[in-house]
Design goal:
By secondary structure, the protein is mainly alpha-helical. Helices cover about 50% and strands about 10% of the residues.
């Protein structure tokens, strides 16, 4: 009986831990760069995220850049409306929608 209770508690604990992370998190996990010097160098160059496209797709790009760069660099990267200073930027250029196929 005691072994069964232990097994049930183990299964509940494992399933709770598995649910703590979504499939999205498992697929696109952005773990901070291990090399602190490299992470610091990137952080100095990536000073802001600029996505000029205010469409829903542009907001998705901005959110993903914030999530990815924030994870890789170990902290949030500010979002800016324009590129207005020296330094590196993570930017998604505005582009016209693609022509329909066919």
């Amino acid at each position: 009986m005691r072994a069964a209770a232990t097994a049930v508690l183990f299964v509940l604990g494992v399933s709770a831990a598995a649910r703590a992370e979504s499939g999205y998190d498992l697929w696109l996990r952005y773990v901070a760069l291990e090399d602190a010097a490299q992470r610091s160098a990137y952080r100095q160059r990536v000073t802001a995220i600029v996505v000029e496209d205010g469409s829903p797709a542009g907001r998705v790009v901005q959110d993903e850049l914030r999530r990815g760069l924030g994870g890789l660099l170990g902290g949030p990267v500010p979002v800016a409306r324009t590129v207005d200073a020296d330094g590196g930027r993570a930017a998604a250029p505005r582009a016209p929608p693609p022509e329909p196929l066919g």
